[in-house]
Amino acid sequence: xxxxxxxxxxxxxxxxxxxxxxxxxxxxxxxxxxxxxxxxxxxxxxxxxxxxxxxxxxxxxxxx
Amino acid sequence: xxxxxxxxxxxxxxxxxxxxxxxxxxxxxxxxxxxxxxxxxxxxxxxxxxxxxxxxxxxxxxxxxxxxxxxxxxxxxxxxxxxxxxxxxxxxxxxxxxxxxxxxxxxxxxxxxxxxxxxxxxxxxxxxxxxxxxxxxxxxxxxxxxxxxxxxxxxxxxxxxxxxxxxxxxxxxxxxxxxxxxxxxxxxxxxxxxxxxxxxxxxxxxxxxxxxxxxxxxxxxxxxxxxxxxxxxxxxxxxxxxxxxxxxxxxxxxxxxxxxxxxxxxxxxxxxxxxxxxxxxxxxxxxxxxxxxxxxxxxxxxxxxxxxxxxxxxxxxxxxxxxxxxxxxxxxxxxxxxxxxxxxxxx
Lengths: 64, 347
What we know:
The complex is a heterodimer.
Chain A: E1 10-13, E2 20-23, E3 32-34, E4 41-47, E5 50-54
Chain B: E1 8-13, H1 18-28, E2 33-39, H2 48-51, E3 63-64, E4 74-77, H3 83-92, E5 97-100, H4 110-117, H5 124-127, E6 131-132, H6 135-138, E7 147-149, H7 153-167, E8 171-180, H8 195-198, E9 202-206, H9 213-220, E10 225-232, E11 238-246, H10 252-263, E12 269-271, E13 293-299, E14 306-312, H11 316-330
Helix pairs in contact in B: 1-11, 7-9
């Protein structure tokens, strides 16, 4: 029996700016990517349904 | 036949200043433009590259006196404020399209001109004919126009920073903090432009009521908006950081939607509001020499205040670049012709 592999891009919305975020391969839990619009670092927190959350980032602070 | 195949002759009145030089720089690389005459009363008979050394080998012309300017297809006026207003009839007789880069035809209403420039307009009947030369707000009125105004550089930065918010009725009150480069002051030296005074400056020179506000109100409608302007250590560039008290609480995603909606189809406006990297928000330094305007925004979660930003090169998007973009539209050409290059980095 042959298996069919789907190659359609998997998409979700950036939780920061609502831009479309696509994955060319099925995303994995814990995978990190960046939104191409706002460049937020995003973590895949669930694959079914696909859920993206902002990954913690180091803040820039020059206010010493 | 594409628009690039059709050529036109463009002459410049008052071509020795910074906006005139910038205009010539853009026109000499424009695929349809042939530079006609360039006038300067004080430099008549001298080569253009004497005033604009970057144009050596690109603009092979001698300055003429203004009276020698003849008929052409497009005539740019780069004279000091007040001159074009008094002489506009003569110049409009020489070309079917006149673009005045001074402040004389930016405001349509003679009463508003009096408010912001402190004098009656010398040709008030012509004001209604002029189209404000910022395509992002007046693109629909530009095709076929006979008289186009230039834009104020600070006005351009304020307008583009605030336009999506103003259209959405989100501005209860706003203060625009504007940092400007030294080329805004023009090519004529002054006490304020003397190098020991101007270099390393972070000098606020206008705390409110700047005349460019009149242009912003004309473009965006009456707003509770004021501006402070500070001279900083740049040659080119304007950075407008507008602090906006919104009419209601707003979330960041809504701002993305508003700015994408306003600027998604604009060829020269880019949204820069990133969470990572060294250039998260607009920076005029990366726009040096380019016709792009970078806009950005953020929300202060504690107060709900919106911070709306816009950076431009004051001599390009804030003057000559918008003029060429407007010219392209007025002539029915591709709007981006001669303007598609990026800025310098590092600069």
